[in-house]
Amino acid sequence: MMIKQIRQVRKKDLVPFDQYSKNRKILRKKLVQFKKNRRIHVGPNATFYFECYETILAQIQEMLYIERGGDNQLKDELIAYNPLIPKGRELVATLMFEIDNQQKRSEFLNKVGGIEKKAFIKIDNEKIKSIPETDVDRTSTEGKASSVQFVHFNFLGGQIRKFKDLKCEIYIGIDHEIYNHMTKILDSTRKALILDFN
Length: 198
Description:
alpha+beta
């Protein structure tokens, strides 16, 4: 098993295009099952999807299938997605704001600029604050947030130990003035996410 600090998706990890096309439905069904315990809803509009090597590999594979850009596209996908694989002392999530009504979604996103810096994981009285991925600025200069955010939660050793101890309650939340919600992380999710740590 590779060490998490250096584990990244490489070209050799990908299923050949023809093979992926043939088995895509089965592979995607397995992925849905795998990701089930890596998803946390916080409030009515926000969902954290926690990433790992397997989810990022699947994402890159799917992007290549949809866009069919070959090796040139692959280079860009690896640069974009490999930083989202946790490196042993962090959790990494895609944070999505999902509102079906387009007008309501736009109104909401116009009010929550900077929300990517307002997510947290709470362990006892400590808050591990989100650090946004720096590939692009996901809050516009006008203060509009993107509906998709990528955030890192960097843990200290003692915080990792507490996260692994299921007797210790852990919460995840967002404390933006417009969107303020928190929820307990279920044991089933904790068990899945514990594997992201060394």
